[in-house]
Write a structure and sequence with these properties.
Largest sheet: 7 strands, antiparallel
Number of helices: 5
Radius of gyration: 27 Å
Shape: globular
Oligomer: single chain
Number of strands: 47
């Protein structure tokens, strides 16, 4: 059993829907199916072999009982999957049974396949999302498409005193404030920078106080007297309207990031920059079993390899190397890392960086998870919301395609041709014959859209798909690429494409483009959470773009958080039987482990195996089993590990506390809850 499997798996039972509005019945694995001629079949939980969009292919073992005898066999299953990561639920429907085999039963395959399919008509079968992840990890090995990412390093700043990094999207663009035109604010930043004409001073609102500086880039000091009442009025109005980030300097549970009396240094950057820091002079600790040292008093992932005496740091899932903490830093492929990184123990305080070390089980699982969509059913009469453009639409060509996109609109609006337009909002595609609408939910998306290259700021929309439709609903889904998580050429996940896209700004509007650096974005891994993503305590803002923003916690599990809840939990998203979903509850689905549900398996070689207290056995005929040599059970143990719900929960790495909060190293600690301002593109 692989030690990296993150959570206990709970066997899941799905509702069997007899008719609309009738109570749903609860059954457990194995499922008992009644056939003609007094025959029954026990269908054991399938092992998923592949997932393409929402098409599942799996294999399953079964037991056919006929004339008092038991015959074991296997079959292949093809079905449609509805996936809700937040609720740990995968529902299968529209079953097709293929390649059914029961060698000793002398059956007519086609007739039995047809009977089994009829038993599944109009019904859904569910199991744990974690089971899907683990099944796919066991079955993985095929190469995955990888975008052409850009890995030019950002600028790095190292500080040994408390500091925060505040980003401006390019050179500052000043705009007049409502009600006080003589007071200008920086439009292309989510922080509040103010400056009054004919005044030598600049002001910044952060950490509940005013900072003052002679230049925009500093040096910033706490203002002794504060600005005029006009500044306060402008600040209160913008914060209330959530037009700026108040930079409160608090953790997700409302605790201050800094000790009383501590005022951090303000660092302002206008180009991709990352802040590395330590609490006082750097201190180092050994990583057991390796030649690595890590900076023990830093929220960042900073290492020294004692063999080559180089520093290594992990930012946005990418590794950078330098001979000095002051730089210069250069990108280093994960495959070129010192081999000791792959030897970091699972219980090390820096174990979460394993998710970014090629070839490790943690990295492999993260790649598997990044290919699994979050799905939903949306009503066909759903309409997009709050579409606005800054004047007449300004079209920009998308490289390597014949498409154009609207630079100056708050949603990604794409022109396919003069009579065909598409846009994405919160994971749903809409289409119209005009850029002004009216809009309707798209039933399909042109293939050209999925050829948008990573060099385009709209690349992330290629991770949103339409899977099918009925007369009332459309099945949609997105993978984590929609939120900026991509698979690198190293076979690890990284945040952002690495390109420094231009944002749109005018005299009164800012539409920020997705950004890779400046926010301390990092990934971690833990026994309970699998892989997760967080933001550095050195950055008080979310990155812009990627379909989400605004006030939020200090870490965001992009794999689990469900964008579709933005449309309303009850009126749009469907769970089993058409019920609306709510957090952690879908319809009346029960999570139950069935008796004898986790010990029968079908394998690629067409054989049926079972797990017993004394080891593995292979079925050789009705009621007959033979023991399997323990030397040949590695694959069987992995399958069992992905289904076994009685496994003991391993202790989390020491880099995590027991409240379940990630203590990020590879992206660093906690950041303040805040707002990412501007008219972001969803």
């Amino acid at each position: 059993m692989k030690s990296w499997i993150a959570v206990l798996l709970i066997m899941v039972l799905s509702p069997w829907i007899k008719a609309q509005n009738k109570p749903e019945q609860t059954r457990t694995w194995p499922l008992e199916l009644k056939l003609t001629n007094n025959q029954t079949i026990e269908m054991y939980q399938p092992q998923v072999e592949s997932l393409s969009h929402n098409d599942i292919k799996a294999r399953a073992a079964f037991k056919l009982r006929r004339e008092g005898k038991d015959y074991y066999g296997i079959c292949k299953i093809e079905a449609k999957a509805a996936i809700n990561k937040e609720s740990d639920l995968v529902e299968l429907s529209r079953f097709r049974i293929k390649n059914l085999q029961a060698p000793t039963a002398n059956i007519t395959n086609n007739d039995l396949q047809t009977e089994i399919e009829k038993n599944f008509d109009g019904k859904t079968v569910a199991f744990s999302y974690r089971t899907l992840v683990d099944n796919l990890a066991v079955a993985s090995g095929a190469s995955l498409p990888q975008p052409k990412l850009h890995n030019e390093p950002p600028e790095f700043v190292f500080a040994s005193q408390p500091s925060i990094l505040i980003m401006i999207s390019g050179e500052p663009q000043w705009t007049a404030s409502d009600g006080a035109k003589e007071v200008k604010r920086v439009l292309n930043s989510s922080a509040l920078f103010l400056h009054q004409e004919k005044s030598k001073d600049y002001y910044l609102w952060a950490l509940g106080k005013w900072f003052q500086a002679p230049e925009l880039k500093g040096p910033w000091k706490v203002s002794k007297s504060g600005p005029t009442s006009k500044f306060v009025m402008i600040k209160d109005k913008l914060v209330k309207a959530k037009k700026v980030d108040p930079l409160e300097g608090k953790t997700a549970d409302g605790k201050p990031l800094y000790q009383p009396g501590v005022t951090p240094e303000i660092i302002v950057a206008t180009k991709p920059t990352e802040l590395l820091q330590s609490t006082g002079e750097p201190k180092y600790a050994t990583v057991d079993g390796t030649a690595l040292l890590y900076m023990s008093n830093s929220p960042n992932s900073i290492f020294i390899d004692s063999k080559d005496q180089n520093y290594y740091t992990l930012v946005s899932g990418r590794w950078f190397r330098s001979a000095s903490l002051q730089g210069p830093w250069s990108y280093v492929s994960g495959k070129q890392l010192p081999k000791d990184f792959a030897k970091i123990p699972l219980k090390s305080p820096v174990a979460e960086v394993l998710v970014s070390v090629p070839g490790t089980p943690q990295a492999q699982e993260a790649v598997v998870v990044s290919q699994i969509p979050q799905t939903a059913q949306v009503k066909r009469d759903l309409k997009p919301k709050d579409i606005s453009c800054d004047g007449k639409v300004k079209w920009q060509s998308i490289p390597e395609t014949g498409l154009k996109y609207a630079q100056n609109c708050n949603s990604p609006l794409i022109e396919v041709n003069s009579e065909s337009f598409y846009l994405v909002q919160d994971g749903v595609w809409f289409t119209s014959t005009s850029a002004q609408g009216p809009w309707q939910v798209a039933l399909a998306v042109p293939e050209q859209i999925y050829k948008i290259p990573a060099s385009s700021p709209l690349y992330y929309v290629t991770y949103v798909h339409v899977y099918g439709s009925t007369s009332d609903t459309v099945t949609v889904g997105y993978t984590p690429g929609y939120h900026g998580t991509f698979v690198s050429a190293d076979g690890t996940i990284v945040y952002g494409t690495g390109y420094n896209y231009d944002s749109y700004t005018s005299g009164s509007q800012w539409y920020p483009a997705p950004s890779t650096y400046g926010f301390g974005v990092g990934y971690g891994w833990g026994y309970e959470a699998g892989f997760f993503m967080g933001f550095s305590m050195g950055s008080l803002m979310y990155p812009w773009g990627w379909g989400y923003c605004c006030y939020g916690p200090t870490f965001v599990n992009i794999n689990i958080n469900n964008t579709y809840t933005n449309w309303g939990r009850h009126t749009v998203i469907s769970g089993p039987g058409g019920h609306g979903i709510t957090t952690n509850t879908i319809g009346q689905t029960k999570f139950i482990r069935g008796n004898d549900s986790s010990n029968i398996y079908a394998t690629h070689d067409g054989q049926v195996y079972r797990r017993t207290d004394s080891g593995w056995q292979k079925n050789i005929g009705p009621g007959s089993w033979e023991n399997v040599d323990r030397k040949n059970t590695a694959d069987l143990d992995r399958m069992h590990g992905s289904r076994d719900s009685q496994r003991e929960m391993a202790r989390p790495p020491t880099g995590r506390d027991f409240s379940g909060r990630p203590q990020l190293q590879g992206g660093g600690g906690f950041r303040a809850g805040g707002f990412h301002g501007g008219g972001f593109r969803r």
